[in-house]
Design goal:
This protein has 190 residues and is α+β, with helices and mostly antiparallel strands. It has 2 domains: 3-44; 56-188, Trefoil (Acidic Fibroblast Growth Factor, subunit A) (Trefoil). The chain has 2 helices and 12 strands. The protein has helices spanning 3-10, 12-44, and strands spanning 56-61, 67-70, 81-84, 94-99, 102-107, 113-115, 125-127, 137-141, 147-151, 157-160, 171-174, 184-188. The strands form 4 sheets. It has a 6-stranded antiparallel sheet with strand order 9-8-5-4-1-12, with no helix packed on it. It has a two-stranded antiparallel ribbon with strand order 2-3. The protein has a two-stranded antiparallel ribbon with strand order 6-7. Strand 4 and strand 5 (102-107) form a beta hairpin. The relative contact order is 0.16.
């Protein structure tokens, strides 16, 4: 009996054919997933890590007058965002990559995105800019030029913890209440 006939008799060709079909379906499914994620990034206006130059801003709490700052000038992912006295450091400078009124807020010193995990009361952090929804922010601008920063994914707002007036207070995610500790002004730095 020839090798071909033996394989057919044993069902090897059928098994290989079924395995090849499963492999093609997996590859097609993976390709479709990659395309869907890419299209979502384009539709949502998510910036890629390689970006054109953008001007920088400082964000100051209306309530305390203190500036959003990456704690300790850290460049590490997961570093907390706090309020601090304005010192001109790059850890207090933020670039905006927006489509309309929403997008990413990127720290100049670290190159990482402002991020919120969605848990009420948790502190905002900086994380790698990879297009996840937790790093998308909506700017809700009032007539007087102040704004609130609303996390796109959770619907919660950047909030100075405990309505604190002190340097070092964390910036957390909290329910929108319109209080002054959830309102910010931007200072254009160029």
């Amino acid at each position: 009996m020839s090798t071909v006939l033996r394989r057919r008799a044993c069902g090897e060709d059928q098994a290989r054919s079924a395995g090849a079909q499963r492999g093609r379906r997996r590859r097609r499914g993976l390709l479709a997933s990659v395309l869907a994620i890419s299209m979502a990034a384009v539709v949502l206006g998510v910036a890629s890590p390689a970006r054109a130059a953008s001007p920088y801003y400082q964000f100051k709490s209306v309530r305390s007058g203190l500036t959003l700052d990456v704690n300790g000038g850290s460049t590490a992912p997961g570093a907390q965002v706090i309020q601090w006295s304005s010192n001109g450091g790059d850890n207090q400078r933020w670039a905006l990559f927006l489509t309309g009124n929403q997008g990413q807020v990127v720290n100049k010193k670290s190159g990482l995105c402002l991020n919120f995990d969605g848990v009420v009361g948790h502190t905002l952090t900086q994380e790698p800019c990879d297009g996840r929804f937790t790093e998308l922010w909506q700017f809700q601008v009032a007539a007087d030029g102040t704004f609130q920063l609303r996390n796109y994914w959770s619907g919660l707002y950047a909030d100075v913890y405990g309505d604190s007036l002190w340097p070092g207070a964390p910036i957390d995610g909290w329910y929108g209440n319109g209080a002054l500790n959830q309102q910010f002004v931007s200072v254009f730095l160029g």
